[in-house]
Amino acid sequence: MLTTHTLGFPRIGSQRELKFAVEKFWSGNLDQPGLEATGRELRLRHWQWQREAGLRFVAVGDFSYYDQILDATVLLGGIPRRFGFEPTTLSRAQYFELARGNAAQPACEMTKWFDTNYHFLKPEFDAETRFDGGPQWLFDELQEAKLAGFQAKVQLVGPLTLLKLARVQGVDALALLPRLVPAYARLLKQLQVEGCEWVQLDEPILGLDLDAQWLAAFTPVYRELAEAHPRILLATYFTGVADKVALLQALPVAGVHVDAVREPSQLSAFTDWPVDRILSVGIVDGRNIWKTDLDAALDRLTPLYARLGESLWLAPSCSLLHVPTDLEQETKLADGIKDGLSFAKQKLAELATLSRALCLGRSVCFQTLEVNRLGLARFQALPARNNPAVAARLAELPAYGRGLSYAERKLLQHARLNLPLLPTTTIGSFPQTREIRAQRAAFKRGELSQADYTRAMQAEIADAVARQEALGIDVLVHGEAERSDMVDYFAEQLAGVAVCQHGWVQSYGSRCVKPPVIWGDVSRPTAMTVEWTRYAQTLTQKPMKGMLTGPVTLVQWAFVRDDKPRAEVAFQMALALQDEVAELDAAGIAVIQIDEPAFREGLPLKQADWPAYLDWAVKAFKLSAAGARPETQVHTHMCYSEFEDILPAIAAMDADVITIETSRSAMTLLDAFGEFAYPYEIGPGVYDIHSPRVPPVVEMTTLLERALRVIPAERLWVNPDCGLKTRAWAETEAALRNMLTATRQVRARLAEVGSIGVTSVLPTMVAHSACNCSHPAE
After folding, report:
1. Which residue from 290, 341, 688, 697 has the fewest beta carbons nearer than 10 Å?
2. Cα 493 from chain centroid?
3. Which candidate, 98, 89, 94, places its Cα nearest to that of 70?
C-alpha cells in the first residue's frame, strides 16, 4: 500500500476530555499526574485509530495541552524572559501561565492561525532570546509511542514559520536564524537518536507573499537541518505553492507536502517532481467536514501514482485539528445530512480506501466506492439544499447602505442616546455559570418546559442587568444567558443549517466551539433574539444592545457547503440578519451590535485574492446592517486579528462604532487606526478577558491614555477585549469595577484640562513597569 499519514489529529477528545481535565487542573481539582494521565490516554487512543486506519506513521508532536506554537517555543527554550521562568525546568503550571498570564504578567499575545479560527500564542523574541532547550515533553511522547509499538512521525512548526509569526523586537527577525536553526538541528539529532526516522516541519508561510529575503532563507536553513539526518517532510497547506516548485525541488529535504484540496490546480505544477523524493498530496479535506468524492480523488491521483509509485504519499490537506473527531457519535442529524459528512476518524478511513484503490485497482474497493457514491447522491438530492425563495431574494438584493452618512447619523444617535464622554460597555456575553448550563441542558433534554426555561433565563438576564446597573456601565447587554455559543445559537434557528451533537473543535486552549453545518440555502423562519432583548430593555432606562453575530463570522465559523460560492452563502446569511436587525429596531432597541470577529480571518493568504473577498465581505455586513434606521447605532466587534492591511475595508463597513482587542498588544494595534485616520467611533479593549487575571486600575488608565493619543475623546469607547462568557462572576465584576474606576479617572483628567477632542495635552504615560505590560511604552 501507499504510505498514508496525517499532519495532525484533534487532541481534545471525542467527548472534550482534554478540555475538562485542563480546566480541572486550573481550578485545583486535578493534579499534574492526573492531567498527564488524561493526555496519555487520549494520545494512545488516537494513535490506535491511526494504526487501525492503516497509516504508516502515527503523529507525535501534534498533541498540546494549550497550543502547539507555544509548545515549540517551550521546547526550544525561547520563552519570554519577562516571566522569569527557567525553560529547562518549566512546570505545567508555569506553561499555562505563559498562555493565560499571572498576577505579575499578562499572557502572551494571541492571534489567528492563518485563515482559521484556531488561535495560537505569538512567540516573543528579541536580541537576547536564547534557544538553549526546554523540557523534554516531546521526547516523552515519542517514547510513549515507541513503547506502545507505533512508528512515529514527529510534527513541528518549521523555523521560518515560527520566526515569521513571532513578535520580534529590537532586532530583524532573520538575524535570529544563526541561533534558532542550530537549536532545531539539535532537536532533530536528538530525535534521530531516539529512533525517529521522519520529522514533519510545517512551513505554511510558503503560501504567503514572501519577500526575497525570506525566500532566500529557506535553502541555507534546510541545508543545515538536513545535515542533522532525520528525513524531513516539509509541509505546506492552506493555499497553493505552485509558484515555488523550483525552490521546493532545490531544498535538501526528503519530501514535500502540498494542499490539493484548497488549491487543486497546483498538482499540475508537480508533474515533474523527482521520483526519488516524496510528494505527499493532501487529498482529503482537513478544514471541512464534507465526505471526499473518492472517484474524483482517484481520477486526480492516478496520473501521479503512475509516475511516482511509492514516492506518492496520501494525507489530509492539513492537520485534522480543524474538524470534529468522530461522526459515529452523531445520532440526531436530519435524514440525509450525515450521508455527506466525514469527521477526522472517517477521513483516515478515506485515505485507506484511496491507497487500496490506487495500488490494487478500484474493483477491489468496489463496495466502499459504491457506498461513497450513493451517500453523496442522497446528500446532494436533499430537497432543502436549494430554496427557490432564497434564490429569488438574492436576485433582487436591496441597497447596501444606511440612507445617511455617518456624519449625519452620529448627530441623530448622540441626541437619542445622550451618553457621557468615554462611554462604557461590554462586548456582549456574561459568565455562563454552571446553573445556566444545567438549565439549558435540562431544557434540551425535555426536562424543563419552555415556560420554565424562559423564566429561568429571564432571571439570569435580570441579574446581569442589575449587576451592570450597579457597576455604572453606560450601554448594557442582556448577557446572552440563553446562548450556548455566538454561532451555534443562530445556527439552531436558521433553515439550511444543522448543528451537531459532538462536533467540537478547538479554538484556543480549553475553548472548544461547535461549528454549524451550512448544508442548504439559508433563511430565517422566525425572530431569533428580539424577545430576549426586548425583555432586557424593560429592566433599564439605559440603552440595551441587541446582539447579533455577523454574516461573515456565521459563515467563516461554520462548515460551509462547497458547491456554491462562499459570497453567495454570506449574502443569504446577511439577508436573514437584515430581517432580525429590522425587528430589533422596530422594537425600540437603539444600539445593535453585529459582531464580525472573523472578518480578518477570512482574508485569503495571497494578496491578489484580497479585493474579491473584501468586496463581498463588506457588502454582506452592510446588507445585514441595512435593516437599522439612521438614528439606531450599529456596532461591530473584531478580536485577535491584525487589521493594519485591511483598514480601508473595515471603514467601508460603515459601522458607527467598532470594538477591538488591543490589551495584549498594549494598544499597539490602535496606531494603525490612528495613521489611517479611522473616522468612526472605536472601543479598544482595555483588558484581556481570556486570562483570569484582574488588571489593576493603573494598567487600564495607562491603556486609555495610550488610546487617547490616537483617538479623540469624543470618539473613544471603553470596554473589555471580548465577551465574558468564559470568566467567573467574581473576576468579571472585579475587572469591570476597575475598568469603570479607570474611566472615571480619565474623564476627570480630561475635564480638568478641558481637553475634549484634544490628545496632545494628556499627562505623560505612567512608567512601563507600573502597568506590568510586556511591551515598552511609546
Report:
1. 697
2. 23
3. 98
Q: Does position 482 have pLDDT exceeding 60, yes or no?
A: yes
Separation of alpha carbons 594 and 616, rounded Å: 16
pLDDT, tens only, 252-299 = 999 999 999 999 999 999 999 999 999 999 999 999 999 999 999 999
How many CA atoms lie within 13 Å of 98's alpha carbon, on the beta-carbon side?
Answer: 30
Which residues are catalytic, by number?
690
Give CA–CA dist 226/629, Å, rounded: 63
The lowest-confidence range among 212-216, 322-326, 439-443 is 439-443
Helices first, then strands: H and E counts in the chain = 26, 21
C-alpha cell at 444: 434540551
Residues with Cβ < 8 Å from 563, sequence gap 6 or more? 380
- Averaged pLDDT score across all residues of the chain: 93
> How many angstroms separate the CA atoms of 506 and 512, rounded?
4
- Cross-sheet strand order for the sheet of 278-284: 58-60, 152-157, 198-202, 231-235, 255-259, 278-284, 312-316
* 202-213 tens-digit pLDDT: 999 999 999 999
- CB burial string 71-81: b at 16+ within 10 A, e below: bbbbbbbbbbe
Strand partners, 341: 290
Nine-digit cell at 33? 499526574
User: Cα separation of 574 and 554, whole Å?
Assistant: 9
> Phi/psi zone of residue 479: left (φ > 0), alpha (ψ -120 to 50 degrees), beta?
left
- Measured between alpha carbons, how far is 106 from 84 in angstroms, rounded to an integer? 13
- Please tell me whether residue 721 adopts helix, strand or coil conformation: coil
**Percent of all residues in the chain with a pLDDT value above 90, rounded to a whole number:** 88
Decide: 138 and 131 in contact? Cβ < 8 Å.
Answer: no
Query: What are the strands, taking DSSP E only, across 495-542?
Result: 495-498, 505-508, 511-513, 517-523
Residue with cell 435580570: 462
Give residue 178's identity as a one-letter amino acid code: P
The pLDDT of residue 662:
81
For residue 772, pLDDT beyond 70: no
Which residues make Cβ contacts (< 8 Å) with residue 82, sequence separation at least 6? 105, 124, 774
Please return the burial class of 179, using the count of CB atoms within 10 Å of its CB with bins 0-12, 13-18 and 19+: middle
Q: Side chain identity at 284, as an amino acid letter? A: V
Q: What's the CA dihedral at 187, 189, 194, 199 to 10 degrees?
A: 70
H helices within 309-433, ranges in order?
344-360, 366-380, 388-395, 406-417
In contact, 273 and 303? CB cutoff 8 Å: no
Strand 167-169 to strand 119-121: parallel, antiparallel, or no bridges (unpaired)? Answer: unpaired
- Please say whether the beta carbons of 579 and 626 come within 8 A: no
Half-sphere exposure of 42 (CA within 13 A, CB side): 26
Residue 111, strand partner residues: 120
Q: pLDDT-based confidence at 757, cuts 50/70/90?
A: very low
Fold of 401-430+466-771: TIM Barrel (3.20.20)
CA 655 to each of CA 458, 473, 533, 617, 632: distance values in angstroms, whole numbers, following the listed order: 30, 22, 20, 13, 11
Residues belonging to the chain:
778
